[in-house]
Amino acid sequence: MKSGVYRLLLGAALIAGTQAQAQNAVEAPSSKGPKITLQQAVDIALRNNISVKQSEIQLQNAVLNYQQAKNNQLPGANGTVSEFFNFGRSLDPFTNTYVARNINYNSLGVNAGVTVFNGNLLKNTIAQNDLLVKANQLDMQAMKENISMQVVLAYLNILNAEDQLIIAQSQTAITKLQIERTEKLVRAGSLPQTNLLDLKAQVANEETTVVNNQSTLDLAKLNLVQLLNDKEFSNNVNLDRISVPTPSTTAYEAPVDQIYQTAEGTQPTVKASDLRVKSADKGIEIARAGFLPTINLSASTGANQSNAQKIYKVDGTNQQNLGTVSFNGQDIPLVVNTPRTVEAGTVGYFKQLENTFNYAFGASANIPIFSRFANKTRVSQAKLQKVNAELEAQKTRLTLRQNIEQAYTNMSNSAKRYEALTVQVTALEESFRAAESRFNAGAIDFVSYNLQKTNLDKAKANQIQAKYDFIFRTKILDYYQNKPLTF
């Protein structure tokens, strides 16, 4: 009779422990890190991800190439300034004669030119760079979506690890309570010492499970912290837990073919590959421009200055004896008076520029006659690049199709597993309630009762893992359906 009373007390303790377990399962393990929501985690990861930053740089570079391709249509202009110093016997730039003096020579000029026609090379280059800008934008979008998916997976892994840890901690707490109760019963002589030893061995195993689950949770948080790449979350992170809905195991709303059709029209990787095919088309047109003439207009203006250009003035006359002439038997000297000129300085700088100012304009045509088949080779290479771009587009679609098929299969399998585990948990809950009643009535021993409880705890842990796995597999298909990743 006394033994029955003790068994009833132990049963009451077990019921109380089970209620405590249900109460503890509501709250996630505490964390000292700052709290963030799922959307905040995605935003932080996208802001700090190095690959995204590199993709942004590539996009900026593509934009600069596009802008420069447009600017190449504008006229070009250059200014030149030159200064030369000649020593010894030098060429006078104004008289074009050699003089035995040092001369410095300065010239100024401006040249301008514009391409009127070059086989639409500029036009096609602009179009090609515009396509590449759009392709880079889609590449960056695809990268951001991939990182967002990684953050969602890391987020769900943390929720799963927290729930697993709660179950393990609750199971350990119940077993420890059982040890306390069993010690009293052993001291009272109502239960054998082996029952207490079995419980202590069991709690050691359960504490190991708690340590393993805590390690799994720490690794899951570390994975999210590494994705965030933020010093604020360098040690730990505390999730603002969201209410994840219980997944429905009914068939997914769309079959594989429909998912693929939607993804083919919305996935940025597919769009980017198609744009690169169009870019390769423009590359062929650019290569063909080498067979066509190029017409340019040009204009130039300039002036020069030199210290060789002097100012001269008349300073008297010079008599020059040209010889004698005979007249009436007399030799008469022939003398000529010529003006004597002397240097009076150098012509002023700006006066020389004014005197030497000149300008010119003209047009030129460059007509290709024979380029040693270089243009033909460039066209053939451009065509090969287009074929390769088309193959890359086909490969992208094939990879997309395979990924969707794999994701759909994984989702279907995870749905079946979750459904089977849900049925298993329901059955084990009924079995555990029956075992609990029988144990309280003294109809079964503790070992049989504990086996039922352990099986139920393991089934619940597996069910939680299957739940989050199923949710993530479903989110992957939602992503291919162009649906938001929110819950």
From TrEMBL:
Q: Output the InterPro entries linked to this UniProt entry.
A: OMP_efflux, TolC-like
Cell compartment(s), UniProt = Cell outer membrane
Q: Residue span of the signal peptide, if any?
A: 1-22
Could you list the residue ranges forming a coiled coil in this record?
381-438
Q: Does the keyword Hydrolase apply?
A: no
- The answer to whether the entry has keyword Chaperone is no
Its keywords, alphabetically, are: Cell outer membrane, Coiled coil, Membrane, Signal, Transmembrane, Transmembrane beta strand, Transport
Coarsely, its chief localization is: membrane
Top-rank taxon of the source lineage equals: Bacteria
- Which SUPFAM superfamilies does its entry note? Outer membrane efflux proteins (OEP)
Per the similarity annotation, which family is this? Belongs to the outer membrane factor (OMF) (TC 1.B.17) family.
Q: What is this protein called?
A: TolC family protein
The organism of origin for this protein: Flectobacillus rivi
